[in-house]
Amino acid sequence: MTRAMQTTPNPPGWSGREHPHLPYVRHVRKSWRRDAHGMWESDACDDTPWEVVCAECGDDEGPAQEQSGSVRKLRGPYRNKHKAQRVAHRHERRESGPLGWIPGSTARIPA
Q: Which of 21, 61, 78, 80 is 20 to 30 A from 4 in CA distance terms?
């Protein structure tokens, strides 16, 4: 970030969040274990239900029962991929809000 940008007002619609919520959808994983670095690994997945994972919410991508209540609620499971994707998109819009410029904005940051 340049010095000029640090001293100028924020443009309209700027949310102040540097880390947007970028949830993703995957099949429900099972058979969890920790790898040599202490990270969660899954050896199998259930091909029917889907889940939503959002690291910015504190989800460590491990087993659902090890997550906080709010992460478990977002995680699901969902009966199909379409439903999980809808939940993920809604979560991203609600939590991240507009980042940067809003299209059509007339505010300008001096160079």
A: 21
Length of the chain: 111
Dihedral sign (CA 71, 24, 81, 85): positive
- pTM, two decimals, is 0.69
Q: What is the pLDDT of residue 5?
A: 41
**Which residue would you say has higher pLDDT here, 25 or 13?**
25
Whether the CB-CB separation of 28 and 47 falls below 8 Å is answered with: no
**Position 8 in a domain:** no
* pLDDT, tens only, 38-51: 999 999 989 899 99
Domain range spanning residue 55? 24-96
In a domain, 62, yes or no: yes
* Angle, vertex CA 55, rays to CA 14 and CA 83, nearest 5: 90
Number of domains in the chain: 1
